[in-house]
């Protein structure tokens, strides 16, 4: 297991955002978390990346207990996240944003760095065209590409994506999911949180369904996509 | 209003105004950088500056002894360099202490910004009073206060034993521009340029801009914001130390409350230029220094501060976010 989450409980004050969440992510897999608004998906990801502290439970990455590590140390272990709402640095150029992704590596002059930049540009050719543009003036879709490209610049072993399709046109959603698959095929393990259950299940090796802070169903992507109750609740019939 | 006085002395008023403004600008950087990363006014930054002025005075006394003398700028250059280093170190240490004691514990507990402001005001008073009582503090640790000539009473003005006599460097329109003013302006510009480049080019600077724009995303990039915040206080302290040295060259004396009015002016300069914006601090500082001088010439010296603050209000009425407006985070290369 690359990542193991055991009995995770997180509170906001007295509100229990997630309760007893346990699941694992195998090396090389794509794992999806799906669920309605407020189900606790973002909270789960933020707890894995260290932005939220746990009330109970453990986060284990590559066999190492990282539950209490601050977020900036988790990035150095090659666990990186593209946050919900993208969180790009709006005052920096596309290139400066990508450089920020490589902040922990501190090897901006090296060949390895150049290679990773090329890789991001080949995944997102649009970013190369916009290299010198200020990120705040990019379209929503382009900002999503910046957020993902930036997360890739940390050379993650595990990439966390929080709603990469949020607010994008259907055509662009297709494209983003194709890119996620490509990233995975190039060897990066992916944990993706999505409202777009149809696409997320199609992509996933394993998927978990969250409802009000708890995992209520787990299974392979195909299995869940074919399940009648899942169809009715999350897929609106149009798979 | 005395327009002819202003017109007859315009060169002198401009040059000395720029020199004072450059000092405001250096201090303003401390306010503006901390605001950039924390959205918080470091009220105690004036004390960071004031401790720097005392460091300069002490170096002068230590090196030169206590017999007053008058020297030219050229004769004191080595002494000034030494005081510059001392003032920068002392100011940076005070800034670091402030961050550690007055801010970090509150921020860690996610206290509201208002609490941090109150804590800073408290720290400011405590530091100023401590300096006011320095002879007694020295007594407690068993040191004889050896500086009676300059510290007759704890709260008295503390003058440099070395008075620097300005020399004319060159003439413009019949006014001899003084070497001291030129040095103050050039040295400030140099410090600001160095800081600007540091923030733009180094890894620390990139971390600083990231924290200013989006602390949560910055953490996800692996930026340790505690370290960035501490570094930002230190940078502000270094600039304040440089300002303190230049202030002691130009003004030549300090007091335990010397930080207050200068701090208010520097803060004004920061807001004038657009708080959070490094270049705004420069523009705001110079503008404030010069307009203060013009105002004093037109209405009389006693109106100097009134002019400065009326200017601030007028500019904020027209441009609420200051002249250059944008924040440190959004500042573009
Ligand atoms: N900062 C916060 N303070 C208080 N409550 C919060 C906070 N963040 C999230 N919550 C609450 O925790 C619960 C889970 O929120 P979370 O953001 O994890 O949901 P989500 O599944 O990501 O939803 P969405 O699909 O809308 O993004 C919600 O009930 C939410 O109101
Ligand atoms: Mg969410």
UniProtKB/TrEMBL annotation, chain A:
Q: Which GO terms describe its molecular function?
A: ATP binding; ATP hydrolysis activity; branched-chain amino acid transmembrane transporter activity
TM regions (residue ranges)? none
Q: Does the keyword ATP-binding apply?
A: yes
Give the GO terms filed under biological process for this record: L-amino acid transport
- Every copy of the ABC transporter domain together lies at 3-237
Q: Which InterPro entries does the protein's record reference?
A: AAA+_ATPase, ABC_branched_ATPase_LivF/BraG, ABC_transporter-like_ATP-bd, ABC_transporter-like_CS, BCAA_Transport_ATP-bd_LivF, P-loop_NTPase
Keyword annotations for this protein, in alphabetical order, are: Amino-acid transport, ATP-binding, Nucleotide-binding, Transport
List the PANTHER family: HIGH-AFFINITY BRANCHED-CHAIN AMINO ACID TRANSPORT ATP-BINDING PROTEIN LIVF (PTHR43820)
Family that this chain belongs to: Belongs to the ABC transporter superfamily.
Protein name per UniProt = ABC transporter ATP-binding protein
Query: Where does this protein come from, organism-wise?
Result: Phycicoccus avicenniae
